[in-house]
Specification:
The chain has 329 residues and is α+β, with helices and mostly antiparallel strands. Helix content is 30%, strand content 26%. β12 and β13 form a beta hairpin. α6 runs parallel beside α7.
Length: 329
């Protein structure tokens, strides 16, 4: 076989072990009111498994700077060493509050792409974004009015605007956005947290979600862009400054808050890998389920080079895992 035709290594199948470990650790904290404990458990599981993968990787999207978040911090080097050299984006728990409060839609996520291909948002944590699935690629513009975007998406999908469902975070800052979506006749699905899952739902059949809109986390935006790039969807964003000081800081550091961040800006390689595992039950993934025989996890695994999307159901024997793992599951 010609070397160029040989299948490349599918890191997505190794990443799913990372998110499974994070979910198994964090799920013990469901409803216990301990956001920090759950997050630490997810980080411990995630770091342990990332360091078993044969790669040399740097965290581009992490939990903050080293001094502020000693858990999978920006710039941390991970992996067992050697090629390939990769960027990592992690969100050990997308939805720490739902986990702590025993609510829906908490997931563990990780994405990797070749070194230097992921957007580094620096300290700027918010982004105005719009995400759609494969059927509406090229139909969105984050700078256009909401009504124009919804009509363009509807046309691309062969629907009417009133047939669309928009998913957005339930936040005060979205008061005007809510009003404009309603004026256009579209329906709205509000979520309390977890807009990575919301973005992914636009690219999956049978979720009933057509578009994600609104201001959410920049790290989550980059992670969602990685997943949507692999799944054939689209995401645009613009950095959002919370105040004048943040805007001035960004300009001093060379960030352009007026620039439209396209998919190529957010992750410029097709060779991207993404995995997510449910921690609590949700519309996207089932949460961790325990039984007398161990635990069951439900994961989504995506490989950009082939566009393959896998649903992975795994049954874990916790007695055996605990004998070989430094993490308490």
């Amino acid at each position: 076989m010609n070397d160029s035709k040989k299948p490349s290594r599918n890191l997505a199948m190794e990443l799913v072990r990372v998110t499974e470990a994070a979910a198994l650790g964090a799920a013990r904290f469901m409803g216990r009111g301990d956001k920090e404990g759950g997050d630490q458990a997810a980080v411990d599981g995630m770091r342990l498994m990332l360091n078993t993968i044969d790669m040399k990787a740097v965290v581009v999207i992490g939990e903050g700077e080293k001094d502020e978040a000693p858990m999978l911090y920006n710039g941390e080097e991970l992996g067992a060493g050697g090629p390939p050299e990769m960027d990592i984006a992690v969100d050990p728990i997308d939805g720490t509050r739902p986990l702590a409060e025993g609510r829906l839609n908490s997931i563990a996520t990780v994405a990797i792409a070749p070194r230097g291909t992921m957007f580094d948002p620096g300290p700027f944590v918010y982004m105005n974004k719009i995400a759609v699935g494969p059927g509406a690629v090229g139909a969105v513009d984050v700078e256009k009015p909401v009504k124009d975007n919804l009509h363009s998406i509807a046309k691309a999908l062969g629907k009417r605007a009133q047939d669309l469902t928009v998913i957005m975070l339930d936040r005060e800052r979205h008061e005007q956005l809510r009003a404009e979506v309603r004026a256009a006749g579209a329906r709205i699905r509000f979520i309390d947290d977890g807009d990575v899952a919301g973005a992914l739902m636009t690219a999956l059949p049978d979720t009933g979600i057509d578009v994600l809109m609104g201001i959410g986390g920049t790290p989550e935006g980059v992670i969602a862009a990685c997943a949507l790039r692999a799944m054939g969807g689209d995401l645009q964003g613009k950095l959002y400054a919370r105040n004048k000081d943040e805007l001035a800081q960004g300009r001093e550091m060379g960030y352009d808050f007026e620039k439209i961040l396209t998919m190529d800006d957010l992750v410029s390689s097709e060779d991207v890998f993404f995995a997510a595992t449910g921690i609590t039950d949700g519309e996207l993934l089932d949460g961790v389920k325990y039984s007398s025989r161990g635990a069951r996890t439900h994961s989504l695994v995506v490989r950009g080079a082939t566009g393959t999307v896998r649903n992975v159901i795994a049954n874990h024997n916790l007695d055996k895992l605990e004998k070989i793992s430094a993490v308490d599951y």
